[in-house]
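Per your request, structure below.
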């Protein structure tokens, strides 16, 4: 699936996300650029955990010496291929900053499989654990302001209310509002549709807005990710919800924060890493430094 992505280099997930602002999210659905092939992970290298080294001073930028060149290559590639790298303002970074240090999700349950309250909560816990792996990369690093970033699921969208087997009101429930062939939470509550931050038309107001969708589709292989959220197979997510690393979700969250794909090139001197689909099943040191590098280049927009 990876090879069948559109060949335009600029149409990375992020570029797709930017384009989708103009063209609608179908752009993203139509370009499964972010497919992982689990069978290719058999030989994924096991990398040592990052050393627990000294606390990095606020302004420090000190990647390991062997990563300096590949990180530079990646950033120059991003600069030359993203259509609006520095003007785009709906990265995951922007969403968290707008919220003051949290992220809100809506689940698009694109399946007829029933969901118990227990499964609902386990899906939330799994999403939180995976999202937090990326946030842990940033804690205490280079003026990133948040040691922890709470992940809230504020809504579920479903075709049929009876699919959701709970009666409490812990989340907002949206029934049979179909867009892109799948249930969606109210656009009035979604950041993708209201990037001015005005949620006055959202019934629950800003507190019940969602920044990203966790779009779980029955029978869907691989994944997709962008500023709008992440899309995965519902069976894959449910079956791997207790895994330490839900690697397709991790990869797609990487896209939501601007990280690129590496289908057609590899930075010098680095082996397998998460954002090179199929070559690693967890966030590697190189992924972590690419993530930090994105923040380094974006943080001036926040006066940091
Ligand atoms: Zn990808």
């Amino acid at each position: 699936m990876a090879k069948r992505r559109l060949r335009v280099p600029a149409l990375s997930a992020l570029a797709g996300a930017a384009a989708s602002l103009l063209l609608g999210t179908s752009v993203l659905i139509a370009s499964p650029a972010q497919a992982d092939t689990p069978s290719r992970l058999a030989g994924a290298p096991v990398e040592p955990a990052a050393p627990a080294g000294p606390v990095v001073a606020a302004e420090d930028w000190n990647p390991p010496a062997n990563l300096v060149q590949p990180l530079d290559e990646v950033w120059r590639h991003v600069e030359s291929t993203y259509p609006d790298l520095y003007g785009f303002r709906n990265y995951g970074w922007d969403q968290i900053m707008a919220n003051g240090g949290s992220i809100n999700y809506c689940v698009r349950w694109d399946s007829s499989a029933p969901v118990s309250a227990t499964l609902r909560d386990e899906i939330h816990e799994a999403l939180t654990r995976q999202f937090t792996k990326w946030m842990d990369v940033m804690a205490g690093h280079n003026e990133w302001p948040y040691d922890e970033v709470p992940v809230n699921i504020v809504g579920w969208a479903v075709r049929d209310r009876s699919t959701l087997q709970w009666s409490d009101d812990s989340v907002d429930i949206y029934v049979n509002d179909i867009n892109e062939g799948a249930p969606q939470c109210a656009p009035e509550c979604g950041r993708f549709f209201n990037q001015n931050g005005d949620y006055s038309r959202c019934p629950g107001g800003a507190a019940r807005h969602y920044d990203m969708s966790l779009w779980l589709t029955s029978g869907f292989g691989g994944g997709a990710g962008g500023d709008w959220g992440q899309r995965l197979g519902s069976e894959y997510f449910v079956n791997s919800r207790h895994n330490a690393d839900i690697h397709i979700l991790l990869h797609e969250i990487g896209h939501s924060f601007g990280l690129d794909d590496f289908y057609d090139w590899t930075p010098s001197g680095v082996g397998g890493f998460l954002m090179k689909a199929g070559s690693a099943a967890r966030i590697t040191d190189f992924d972590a430094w690419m993530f930090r590098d994105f923040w380094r280049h974006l943080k001036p927009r926040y006066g940091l």
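The two ends are 39 Å apart (CA to CA).

Regards,
D.
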